[in-house]
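Entry 14. Two folds queued back to back today. First construct below, sequence then structure tokens.
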Amino acid sequence: MKKLEQIRQESKEIKDKIDDTEERLRQLKNQEKKILKQDIVKKKERTHRLITRGAILESLIENAEELTDEEIKILLEEATKTKEFKETLKIMREN
């Protein structure tokens, strides 16, 4: 009789462990979904930012669509080396 009671107790403990493990798994799956959703939002925000900034760039450089990516890069590298650019950027970062 004692043996049966012991088996029941062990069975209950195992079931409790299974329940706890399943709950932890559910929590981890929810965390994963949340992280994946945040990643999607960040990617959308980045894409929007890149499109917006590209449009700004094209609006400021005459016939920018005729330039290659490498030529745009060279222009930006040169522009960012100027004293005026550096001073303006410093002021913007201080505010």
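Second construct, same run, same settings:
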Amino acid sequence: MRRRDEADFTEFAAAAIGRLRRTAYLMCGDWHRAEDAAQDALVRIYRRWDKLNRQHGLNTYAHKAVVSVVLDQSKRPWRREHSTAEPDELPRPDPAMTIDDRHLVIAALEGIPPGQRACVVLRHYADLSIEETAQVLGITTGTVKSQTSKGLVQLRALLGERAAS
């Protein structure tokens, strides 16, 4: 890689690592795995840096890489550390303290299937369009719409169960 390309990649990586790490965290619910996923995604980007269109599609490719890494990690037998807690055993707000609702949402995200979780995270957290989400996940726009809808229904149900108790 040329020196200028190295500098461009380093600048991109420094700007993108936080966003990629947060997206990975919302996908897997574990900061250590998210850090690994973000780093692995940057390695994938680095390998293809000279072939990527840096004007259009670089952020889409970065999201695709991080989502792909997280989904690949979850398929590995030694990485299957899914919560075995029942929905009613997940964290609930403590009325005596102010609770940050993000923790409840993150815990609830673990309760929905990976494909739906990816659609919800990319659409509503990463703020990607339906078309961009479809491109990142390699699925149709109709599938993005249905998976997002089903994921949100399930997420609302899980969050509603916690709020009702």
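Quick look at the second one. Helices lie at 3-28, 31-48, 58-75, 101-109, 114-125, 130-137, 141-164. The two ends are 57 Å apart (CA to CA).
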